[in-house]
Amino acid sequence: MTDLEPLEPLFNPFEPGYIADPYPAFRRLRTEDPVHHHPLGFWVLSRYDDVSALLRSANSVDYRNSAPDSTARLQADAMIEAAGPATGDTVDAYGMSMLDRDPPDHTRLRGLVSKVFTPRSVAALEPFVVDLVDAALDRMADAGTADLIATLAFPIPFAVISRMLGIPETDHARIRVLSGLLVRTLEPIGDPALLAEINAARLEMQDIVRGLIAYKRENPGEDLLTALIAAEQDGDRLSDEELIAQVVLLYVAGHETTVNLIGNGTLALLNHPEELKKLRESPQLAANGVEEMLRYDSPVQLSRRVILEPYEVGGKVIPKGGFVVAALASANHDESRWGPRSGDLQLDRAGARNHVAFGGGPHHCLGAALARLEGRVAVERMAVRFPALAPAAEPVWNGRINLRGLDTLPVTVR
């Protein structure tokens, strides 16, 4: 190597093999540079204590607080610019979800949504989830082999969030396509054509949801969208654009992440047959087992914060405006927190629920209880129903860095 050749960055999620197994790269970060300043300008925290503290800090999630030349700021600005000027009374809902807002806006939005997205409303869905899972398992049993993602992992959470929101069946097919594009906004986007495609999907999805809101105002039902429209706190209600942003967030986050939980979790069980046997023989392990699956291969690998004031961590100071990637998946494998077997799946692991797969602090995932319910029912009933469950072919990863999961997981059940 000559002096003119650039050094390989310590953290490169685009390197070959990363998507199939990012954990060696995270281990390298934890060992060599746990508070890593990437050549592209952002920072990466990879240790459990550092990630957990950042998630609970008062720092920002709003890209507008990042430095003007940061990668995240430039990508978000390009998204808004590509949308063009608003027409008529329509306002672009981009950046209005609770995921993108700081207090007091975040506090207000989350308070209104959590009034209707309650533990009781989630628990009441269990019989519906059981019926959906059993029907999917019946189809798998009849066929003998199946793609677990297409047959079980994707349809279940999609049907559940659609039912909760009261979305008519006629809209499901298009919404599936659009949400699959929208989830890419959580990834780095270097292709202008892809950015334009995602942006078009975002605006189309907003139009669909805007129409649904208008319909629900005239035809209220016993569903989450009707309840969100009516939700009020201290005389305050969600505006139409805020409603649109929260519904789109619930759709994308409400099913794409659970697809990864069920798919990645099942693959982990197949790769650890003794643990799968343990679950089959002791189904009561499923609740803690789901926590361990979330830790072992996190459905969301990374989170973000923008530093509002100089932030000291690991002997370094991240300046105001610094964009920080909190590596959730790395924190969930940190040997200093999880012990020497942090890289192994252990369904009975003590303290597994202390993972950071759902984030932490004020932005802790509002849908965590729903994901846990769907994951627990799916893996428990599948393990008991199919004692011969085994891989049928190599799985295919979806190519995403953040919402890293499987496109296909072929299995045989007999």
Summarize the structure.
The chain has helices at residues 23-32, 48-55, 71-83, 105-114, 119-123, 126-143, 148-153, 155-165, 172-182, 192-218, 224-230, 240-271, 273-281, 286-296, 328-331, 335-338, 368-385, and strands at 35-37, 43-45, 145-147, 302-306, 311-313, 316-318, 323-327, 390-391, 396-397, 406-408, 410-412. With 414 residues, the protein is α+β, with helices and mostly antiparallel strands. It has a single domain, classed as Cytochrome P450 (Cytochrome p450).
Tally the structural domains: 1
In CATH, the homologous superfamily goes by the name Cytochrome P450
Listing every helix as H and every strand as E from the N terminus to the C terminus, the arrangement reads HEEHHHHHEHHHHHHHHEEEEHHHEEEE
Task: Give the CA-CA distance, first to last residue.
Answer: 54 Å
Organism: Catenulispora acidiphila (strain DSM 44928 / JCM 14897 / NBRC 102108 / NRRL B-24433 / ID139908)
InterPro entries: Cyt_P450, Cyt_P450_B, Cyt_P450_CS, Cyt_P450_sf
Pfam families: p450 (PF00067)
Keywords: Heme, Iron, Metal-binding, Monooxygenase, Oxidoreductase
